[in-house]
Write a structure and sequence with these properties.
This protein is mainly alpha-helical. The chain has five helices and two strands, in the order H-H-E-H-H-E-H.
């Protein structure tokens, strides 16, 4: 039912949330030797999700290791500027998607009340 009410935005919100967790994990492990930064190819994950895959499988299948611009000597591939930028962009997109869903819920609520 939520797919018909929210369309692509419900799936996008789930995937953005999963991506946020992955990016936060990258940032938290910036000092861990040998840690390999990962990210979700959002477009590929959303395509898979819209083709019928559940969000966990869509996100897992679209998760890639990040290729560092300047690898560290300890094997860690987290680059804080890249991670922080990706996190901020994802947070803005998450907020926009959430605002759209909130507006849709408010419209449906008004319609049910007959306003």
């Amino acid at each position: 039912m939520s797919d018909s009410i929210f369309g692509i935005h419900g799936a996008a919100l789930e995937l953005r949330s999963q991506r946020m967790g992955l990016l936060a994990s990258n940032i938290a492990n910036a000092g861990t030797p040998g840690y390999k930064a990962r990210d979700i190819d959002f477009a590929a994950a959303l395509r898979a999700r819209m083709d019928g895959a559940d969000s966990a499988h869509a996100a897992d299948d679209a998760t890639l290791y990040r290729v560092p611009v300047m690898p560290s000597l300890d094997g860690n591939t987290v680059e804080m500027a890249t991670e922080q930028t990706a996190f901020a962009e994802n947070a803005v997109a998450y907020s926009a998607t959430l605002s759209f869903i909130r507006g849709r819920v408010e419209s449906l609520t008004r319609a049910m009340k007959g306003e």
